[in-house]
Amino acid sequence: xxxxxxxxxxxxxxxxxxxxxxxxxxxxxxxxxxxxxxxxxxxxxxxxxxxxxxxxxxxxxxxxxxxxxxxxxxxxxxxxxxxxxxxxxxxxxxxxxxxxxxxxxxxxxxxxxxxxxxxxxxxxxxxxxxxxxxxxxxxxxxxxxxxxxxxxxxxxxxxx
Length: 160
Known about the structure:
Layout: E1 5-8, E2 20-23, H1 30-52, H2 60-81, H3 87-107, H4 111-139, H5 142-159
Helix pairs in contact: 1-5, 2-4, 3-4, 4-5
């Protein structure tokens, strides 16, 4: 029988293990999490392309290209305006616009509208990433940064 792992949240007492979660030996590693997230996100894109837009599944590459290009532009924009915005504002703005764009993409049956919403979503995606990382850097102990960054990186890569 393999030993259990105990995952401790910040601010708890290690002696009593209050508010801890016990996992079996097979705690998912980052590649496993990345593969499982990718398996749930990518088929949804294919569904939107084939069912809602009536296009071939190879059209997905163009939608993802629009998202990726907008993500680069959004990253440049956030680098220039990041000092003037609070990280909470960046995070909430990115989440709100990303959620609205995701709902719009799900309801859209027009190619141009879907591409536009995908572009808007990609443009504000760096707001989420930079907002979360800035908040973590400001409010967490440095001992947790490697652990949190090690989990956050694959999650962001899988969701894109």
